[in-house]
Design brief:
By secondary structure, the chain is of the alpha/beta class. Helices cover about 35% and strands about 25% of the residues. It binds guanosine-5'-diphosphate and magnesium ion.
Length: about 300
């Protein structure tokens, strides 16, 4: 293995920018999929992950930040704090702007928030929509944006035309810390869809099982694959702590797993508005609730 010359890089990238600058379009362009835009439950996203891009030598985990507002009320203040927190916990900030216009008040506000971070984060200034302006105007606007955010390295792109997307990906990857990948390679779909599917399966188990078993159940999504625009294929494992629990969860001739699966499938279909093919397995993992590695694997620690 050539690990000396090819160090893997992985990290969390906060995607920031005022509304309409093209954040969703860019995330989709980066991921090469539509998933980020059509995620039906934006409010429930616990970890704010917008998508994961796994490359030969890097894994880029894109994080959504909440919209930044002029804090006229408590909620606005709270959201600004939340945006700052997401950014501080990231390895890199992507500051997206609309390069066809000069910076406006909201851009300034957001840039101010970045400048005032207690723990500064390196970043890239993404000048999007370059296709809408001539080169002179682009230069002029770039200078104006750079003067409000001098520490971020600028790059001009067009998310809709796919211009410079590859350069941007390389710039992002090169600025991430050396880390092994955080997620398995196949996990290209939005993680929060997986998380929600896991929650729904767990809920289905809670509905159908006797009181003592459910608290010992953890759900891991092993595969979450888009089959076409109408449906997805999901494989999941239900972990229990004891053989006796496994027998209960499987039920007579698999009847219980079938009930749980049918119920969970309906719920996931109802939430996502598309057809789901769901396959469940049951496995014993002794004492998983006290096992750091298993907890991490199951996403209880981040
Ligand atoms: P968001 O609010 O930041 O997520 O912005 P969206 O991704 O929803 O994009 C807002 C609008 O800008 C949409 O109509 C996009 O089609 C458009 N847009 C995004 N990127 C580009 C670009 O590179 N060039 C042009 N011309 N339009 C773009
Ligand atoms: Mg958007």
């Amino acid at each position: 293995m050539d690990t000396l010359n090819h160090k893997f890089r992985a990290g969390f990238v906060a995607v920031m920018g005022r509304p309409n600058v093209g954040k969703s379009t860019l995330i989709n362009a980066l991921l090469g999929t539509k998933i980020a835009a059509v995620s039906p439950w934006p409010q429930t996203t616990r970890k704010r992950q917008a998508g994961i891009l796994t490359l030969e030598e890097a894994q880029i985990i894109l994080m959504d930040t909440p919209g930044v507002h002029q804090p006229l009320h408590k909620l606005g203040e709270h959201m600004n704090e939340e945006a700052a927190r997401v950014l501080e916990e990231s390895d890199l900030g992507l500051f997206i702007v609309d390069a066809s216009q000069p910076p406006n008040e909201e851009d300034q506000l957001l840039a101010g928030l970045v400048r005032e971070l207690a723990h500064p984060v390196p970043g890239i200034l993404v000048l999007n929509k370059q296709d809408l302006v001539d080169p002179e105007t682009l230069d002029d606007h770039r200078e104006q944006y750079q003067s409000v955010l001098p520490q971020f390295e600028p790059i001009s792109i067009s998310a809709t035309q796919g211009e410079n997307i590859q350069d941007l990906i390389e710039a992002i990857a090169s600025k991430l810390p050396e880390n092994p990948p955080f997620y398995p390679e196949d996990q290209l779909t939005d993680t929060f869809e997986r998380d929600i599917a896991a929650d729904l399966i767990r809920e289905a188990a809670l509905m159908h099982l006797r009181a003592e078993v459910p608290h010992s159940i953890a759900v891991r999504i092993d595969e979450y694959r888009e089959q076409n625009e109408h449906g997805a294929y999901i494989e999941a494992t239900l972990f229990v702590e004891r053989e006796s629990q496994k027998a209960i969860v499987i039920g007579q001739g698999g009847s219980m797993t079938k009930k749980i699966g049918t119920y969970a499938r309906h719920e996931i279909e109802r939430m996502s508005g598309r057809k789901i093919f769901l396959r469940l397995r049951v496995k014993v993992r002794k004492n998983w609730r006290n096992d750091e590695k298993t907890l991490h694997l199951l996403g209880f620690q981040s």
